[in-house]
Amino acid sequence: MSSNTLRQKQQQQQPETTKEFFQSVGKVTGGTLLAITMLSSSVVAGGLVGLAISFRNLPDVRSLRAFKPSETTHIYDIKGKKLTSIHGEANREVVPLNSISPHLKRAVIAIEDSYFYSHSGVNAGAIARAGVANFTSGRTVEGGSTVTMQLVKNLFLSPERALSRKVAEAVLALRIEQIFKKDQILEMYLNQVYWGHNTYGAQTAARSYFNKDAASLNLAESAMMAGLIQSPEALSPFADMKAAKARQADVLNRMRELGWITASEEAAARKYPIKLGKITSFQTSQMPYVTDAVVQELTRKFGRDAVLKGGMRIQTTIDSRMQRIAEDTARRSLASINAQGVGADQMSIVAVDPRTQFVKAMVGGVNAKKSQFNRAIQALRQPGSAFKPFVYYAAYASGKYAPDSTILDAPVGYPDGYDMYYPQNYDRSFGGAMTLRRALEQSRNVPAVKLGQEIGLNKIVEICRSIGIKSPINPVISLPLGAVDLTPLEMASSYAAFANNGWYSEATLIAQVTDSSGNVLLDNTPKPRLVLDPWASAATNDTLQGVITRGTATAAQIGRPAAGKTGTTSSERDIWFVGYVPQLSTAVWVGNDDYTTLGGGATGGTFVAPIWRDFMSQALQDVPVERFRPPSDFDRP
Question: Residue 261 pLDDT more than 50?
């Protein structure tokens, strides 16, 4: 607190400390009374020190040197826009004393403990007056607690009203005053005190009640906030402005009686039109699927209490503009395809930057208010033919195949336990000899199964693991046709490794995490590793571009080089399109949560590729066109 300002109000000149201001005020308002009070305090203090032997089990107040109150955690997008704030019971942001308005410090001390800078933790005169008032009325109508005693109660003791607790409170207050300076005690108090609506501390309360920082509070706002401490919920201006104004008047009147403000300042503050902010505790996230996923990721690393109470500043990888495009695309597109006879109730869109593996947009469902289940990271669904690029990459990386190598699309059977497995193409026909390029462009099933047997299913599983797929994968014969359950995030992230010519770093929603003081707790600066063969990756990109230009995904054309693959399960329960440009990889999934058939002849190429095109066209609007590097730029294995 700027103690200079405080004494200027009293003597129109700058003192050296806040303590000097309040001591000088004490002399003006009655030196004799102050002397008596201080003498009484000394006597009481001496007696309490003697009682301290009976309180050997009291907390060690020295622990306050390292004490950090719980703080609210804030989550931001990649550009610093706040997405939400999360906290446990206490919504609090800790600030230093010099970041709190002098008006508020003066108002709080005036109404709660006007001799704060004179006593040693206990105010005997206040205790005596409270005792007489309470005895006379037969109930507790007045308290004698100092600011230091209130701090003790908030930090160490239960709220029960008992003589033993009050004595313990006084003993601990005396101990605190021996260890900490007055300004340190006031700073702890103003950051700890409860101001209603799960709001703790001056900064958070100021942001909530008046939509401004604690440092910017004027006299009228400060007096209203100081008045709330007595009964925060009942006196809250959100609940009862009339009661809040009446209590504000009490605070202003007390400040004028003490000589800390003039009559004209009091009158002006009473007339000042209060403009309220809004309750900030337990906010609804602007992007719930994103923020819930962020909290899950950090909880696994730091624990739930650290996330909810640690005052973290979390910079996510999310681009808010791209996120809104994805959300709008999902809602609009689901309604559109259902109007065409497809019975789908959910959709997920995940976009990843291949250069960093930063998740730029994540839609976990079409309505987070109705369902918090995040299909982008929690729904395990069969990708169908969208799995085939992993098989073709494995073939290219083996050195035995190139995009223009020939394979025979003809009937074939493989032992499968006691039975034989005969793969079939979607149209039940066979195309004979064709290039691998053509087989993937037309999404032929038989060639994919043949390649899986030739290359080895375990090798394909190994490749999937190297590019971030962690879901269980069984090396069954039908694996090349997508007989595995994966998440949309896994699909977008793994395709991104192709887009980046084999370079990969683990996908994440979090760029950086710091504590409230700016100390870095987590730095997810990308550390890419070359995990795929560059030539085979480029060959895969080259082949997948053909899927869009002349294959099953011509509806995904966006006017620039792009690669991708459709996916449709044989039961028509899941339809996909996963595609990318060098700067962005996006997976789109459509289906039903109860796994019922979509119907309507649903295929990834017919219904999902246009959704991908819609999203990518908007997301890449200001992104320069970039071409994929051709296989000829790399050495073939």
Answer: yes
